[in-house]
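Practice record 12: protein with magnesium ion.
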Amino acid sequence: MLLELRDVSKRFGGLQAVTGLSMTVAPRTIHGLIGPNGAGKSTVFNLLTGVLPLSSGEIVFKGERVSGLRPSEICRRGIARTFQATTLFRESTALENVLIACHLYAATAFVATLIGTAAYRDKERSVPRRAARGTDGAGERRHHGGAPRASR
Ligand SMILES: Nc1ncnc2c1ncn2[C@@H]1O[C@H](COP(=O)(O)OP(=O)(O)O)[C@@H](O)[C@H]1O
Ligand SMILES: [Mg+2]
C-alpha cells in the first residue's frame, strides 16, 4: 500500500472534526475525498501533510510512519499539496510559478551551486524541462484573473 491512514482522529477543543478514519491508497490509483461542508476533508489533508498534528491514530506512507513529522519532511518523502485558495506570483509567468514549486526537485548542496558542478548544471537544465511539460504551452502567460476566492 502506498498510503495508509489508521484510525485517524482529530479534535479541535470540544469539536471532533475527524473520527477514526481508516483508508488506504494503492500505487497508481486516483482517489477523491467527498463530503458536505464541514465534514473534515480539509482537516484530513492538513493531517496528511503535517500541517496539523493528529489527536490519535497514525499515517504510514511507503511503509514509513509520517504522522509526527514536519510538513517539510513529509513533502520530501513525496506528499505534496495545493491549497483551495491558490496564490500565484502575479508578476511572474505560469512557467516561472511552476519553477518556484519545483525547487524541491532542484535541491543541490550550497557548495555545488557555488562552483557549478556537473550534477548542479544537469538539475538546472532538467527542472525547466519538467516545468514546461506541466504548463503545456501556457508557460509564457501571466496571471490576469481577479483576486482568488478565499475558501477552505
Ligand atoms: N484549525 C481549526 N481549528 C478549529 N476548528 C477547525 C479547524 N479546521 C477545521 N475546523 C473545524 O473542523 C470541522 C471540519 O472542517 P473542514 O476539515 O474544513 O471541513 P471540510 O473541508 O470537509 O469542509 C469544521 O467544523 C471546522 O469548523
Ligand atoms: Mg475544505
